[in-house]
Amino acid sequence: MDEFERALASLLPRLRRFAHGLTRDRADADDLTQRTAERALKARAQWQAGTNFDAWAYRIMRNLWIDTVRGRQRRDKWIAPEEEGTDVGIAGDAETQAELHFLMRAMDRLPDEQREAVALVMIEGLSYADAAEVLEVPAGTLTSRLVRGRQALVKMLGGD
Amino acid sequence: MAEQIDEAMVIAWLDGELDEVTAARVAAAVANDPALRTMADAHRAIRARFASAFGPIADEPVTMPSPASAQVVSLAAVRAARAKEVAAPPARRWAIPGAIAASLLVGVLVGHGAFAPNGVVDQAGALALAAPLARALDNQLAGAPGGVRVALSFRDHSGAYCRSFTATHLSGIACRGGDGWQLRYAAPGNAGTGDYRMAGGDTQQAEMVAALIAGEPLDAAAEREARERGWR
Question: Do B37 and B110 belong to one domain?
Answer without folding.
Answer: no
